[in-house]
Amino acid sequence: MMSIPSETRGLADHGWLRSRFTFSFADYYDPKRMGFGALRVINDDFIAPAKGFGTHPHRDMEIITIPLEGTLQHRDSEGNAAKIRKGEVQIMSAGTGIFHSEYNASDSEDVRLLQIWVMPKKYGITPRYGQKNYELKDNELKLVVSPEGSGDAVGINQDAYFSLGKLTKGTTLPYNVNLSGNGVFVFVLSGTLTVNGQELKTRDGIGISETEALKLTATADTEVLLMEVPMMGTHG
């Protein structure tokens, strides 16, 4: 089990960009926090109005963007241009190589987002882009990322499954692992809950492997992200 309390995460403050790092990233390095299975990065970013990341490259990485507040403008070298808002999930499979930029689309409001990196299942694929919106209902887990992009989920080049949930205080929900051998990293977006008896608060994370099921109990109104990933990393 890997437990990462919110206040122990890495920190970067560039003025226009403020980030908290669950795993080692940029100048933040902790050899015990190099990722969880195929899950490599969870960055919790604030971007100031009209600011953002200029055009930069990625290769052989699955990049998932989940806006939590505000609107993000995306452009990439494959010709994709889109605005991404809360209630949407974006995936960019970098594959053989892609350039992209991300900017706060507003001149007055901050953007808050999660940027998540997952190691790919196959290397050297043709770059691809996906974006879908979703609607969360109380007391259910909504699949938003899956290998096949089934239903409302957006597809990923990995045997990974992401689910978002909104639980009211006192609710208990089960989570059954989709693929035997996968682990699940639970990240609390807001509120508090217990995961298999382990208490988590806002922005805490916990990774649990070698299990087939989790039990989530909300001790306050809670929003949560579950990231189920292979524990053996990648294969080509």
Task: Describe this structure as you would to a colleague.
There is one protein chain. The chain has strands at 2-4, 10-13, 17-21, 39-47, 52-58, 62-69, 71-76, 81-85, 88-93, 98-104, 111-118, 128-133, 141-146, 154-155, 161-167, 172-176, 182-190, 193-195, 198-200, 205-208, 213-218, 222-230. The chain contains no helices and 22 strands. Strand 7 (71-76) and strand 8 (81-85) form a beta hairpin. The strands form 4 sheets. It has a 7-stranded mixed sheet with strand order 1-20-17-22-15-13-14, with no helix packed on it. Strands 2-3-4-11-6-9-12 form a 7-stranded antiparallel sheet, with no helix packed on it. Strands 5-10-7-8 form a 4-stranded antiparallel sheet, with no helix packed on it. It folds into 2 domains: 7-133, Jelly Rolls (Sandwich); 141-230, Jelly Rolls (Sandwich). It has 236 residues and is mainly β.
What name does the CATH topology of the largest domain carry?
Jelly Rolls
- Walk across the major sheet and give the strand order: 1-20-17-22-15-13-14
Order of helices and strands: EEEEEEEEEEEEEEEEEEEEEE
| Rg result | 17 Å
Helical element count?
A: 0
The number of E-state strands comes to 22
Globally, the shape reads: globular
Mean pLDDT comes to: 95
For the biggest sheet, the summary is: 7 strands, mixed
Low-confidence stretches: none
Which architecture name of the largest domain does CATH use?
A: Sandwich
Output the structural class: mainly beta
